[in-house]
Amino acid sequence: MDLVTPLLLPDVDVDVPAEGLSIGQAAEATGISTEALRYYEREGLLLDPTPRTAGGRRRYRARDLAWLAGLVMLRETGMPIADIRVIAELSRRPGTEAERLVELERHRERVLEQLARTQRHLAAIEDKIAAYREVAAGEDRHEDH
Question: pTM for this one?
């Protein structure tokens, strides 16, 4: 199975012309700053080298945008750059789906642990809010008398 199979990459709802998008247009389409796009490229996180015009300007294709959308999703779930680099490196080689699966399953476990921690913290905040509401309601009753 090829990485660019639509089921494996997020949809990006942008019409990309044949010549591709400029870095500014790609940044706007993906919600990533141009500085971040340059950083991701330097760090080897993009699937392919970004094509350039004869003048050296980057041009992003639909496949690049889909890859970037997946990268954003992984970053927003807390995946470290080093782990994204591993997935990018694996994704450049056919036949590494099982290895990619291992990386994603490992990340899912970290996300689930973080989610459980966040849910515990939210429960503690809810308890504090309830306690403060109770105290505040008692103060309001005392002020009315």
Answer: 0.76
